[in-house]
Amino acid sequence: MNAQRLALIFSTVWPEPNSSAAGVRQMQWIRYFLRNGYRVTLSSPSKLKNKEDWGYVEYPEGVDVLPLPLNESTLNGTDGNDQHLSATFKKLNPEIVMFDRFILEEQFGHWIYECCPNARVMLETQDLHFVRRARESIKDQYLAKDYAPGFYQTPEVIDTALREVASIQRVDHTFVVSSYEEELLTKHFEVPRDRLTWIPMVADTVLADEMPTTTKSFKDRSGFCWVGNFRHQPNIDGLRWFKGEIWPRLKLRFPSAQVHVYGAYPSEEVMQWNKPGDGFHVHGHTDRLAAVFASARVNLAPLRFGAGVKGKILEAIAHQIPTVTTKVGVEGILPSGASAHEAFPGLEANTNQVFAEACIAIHEDETLWTKMQKRTQDLTTLYSVDFAEKKMEMAFKKLKPSFTSKVMRHELFNSHKYFARWIEAKNKKPTP
Q1: Fewest C-beta in 10 Å: which of 33, 123, 159, 432?
Q2: Neighbours of 282 (CB within 10 A)
Q3: Residues 151 and 257 in one domain
C-alpha cells in the first residue's frame, strides 16, 4: 500500500483522548488510517498546545499537524511566507478528507470541494448537535416523557437541524457513534442508508494501554465513581443535578456512601463540591483512570440531556463495572432493535428518587451487580477494534459521490463560500 496516501482530518479542537470521548473517537480514526498505510494531517482552528501545557498530546508517528486560521483564508508560514488555504489544500492533495463536526464542513468545505475535487469527503458527527440542543432547551422536562422525532424540527432547533443535515448531504459519507442517531437520520430526515454508517466508539481505545487484564470481584470493590470532561455542558449539568437532588436522597438511605468525581477542566463551582466528610470527593483530572475503574463498584452517568454515546459508559463497559444512568446514557449503546432492559449493562433511572434507589440497589445487591457485570462482557465484540474496522472497511468500499452531494456542494459555493469571505473582509476592516 502506498504510504504517501494522505488523510486530512479537520478537528474542532485538537484531540485529547485522555479528557474527552470526542478525542477518543478522533484517535480511533487516526489509528485506522495509519494502520492502513495513510499519512495523516490533523488540522484545527483551535490553539495548538505546547509540550508544557496541560492536556498536550503527542500524536503517533505519521501524523502532522496543521493549525488553521479562524475566519481567514491565509496561513501564517513558519518561514515568514504566508500561504493561501487553496494553495495549501492543493499541495496536500488528500485522498481522504474527514470533518469531525458539521460546523467545520461549513467553514472549510468549499475550499476542499474546489481545491481537492477527487478527495473522498466524510463527516464524523461525534453527536448530532441539533439533537443535543433540542434536548437542552427542555432539560428540566426531557427525562419526564418520550418525545416524538418531530420534536427535533421545532422552531427552536430547526435551523441547526437543517444546517447539520445539509452538511450530511454534501459529503460522500457520514459516520455516527450512536445507533439511535443512525435510525433517526435515515427514518425521519431522509438520509440514504447507503451514505451513513454507525460505527461504535471502540471501548479498548478509551484508556489505550491501561485496559484491565483481570477484574476485581464485587467484594473487592466499593463506592461510586463519576468521570467526565467539565467543559461538556451535559456533564456539568448532570453532576449538578446529582449533587443537588440525588445525592441527599441517596445518603439518607445509604449514609456510608462514597462517590469519587474525576474529570478534566473542573470549575471553581465543581471544586467547591468537594466534601469528603459527606462522602463526596472531587479529585479533578487523574492520569490513573484505570485504577479508578478497577476499584469502584458502580459507575454513574446522571445526564438530563445530550446526544451521541457517552465515553464514561464505554469506559465502564471496558472495565466491566455496571452503570446507573438515564435514558440519555442508555441511548445508542446497543444495536437498533436490542432491548435495553435485557442487554444494557446497568440500570436506567429518570427521576431523583428512582436514581438514588437504583444506585443503592446495584451497589448493595451482589446478584444484581454480577448480572450487570456479565452484560459488559457480552458487549466486548460490539465494542472491539476488529468489529469497528470491519464496518469502516465496508463503508469505504461504498464511498462514492452522489448527485445530491453535487447539488448541495454547488449551493455551498454560492453561499457559505462568499459568506466566509465576507467575514474575513469584515474582520480585516479597520475600526473607525
Answers
A1: 432
A2: 20
A3: no
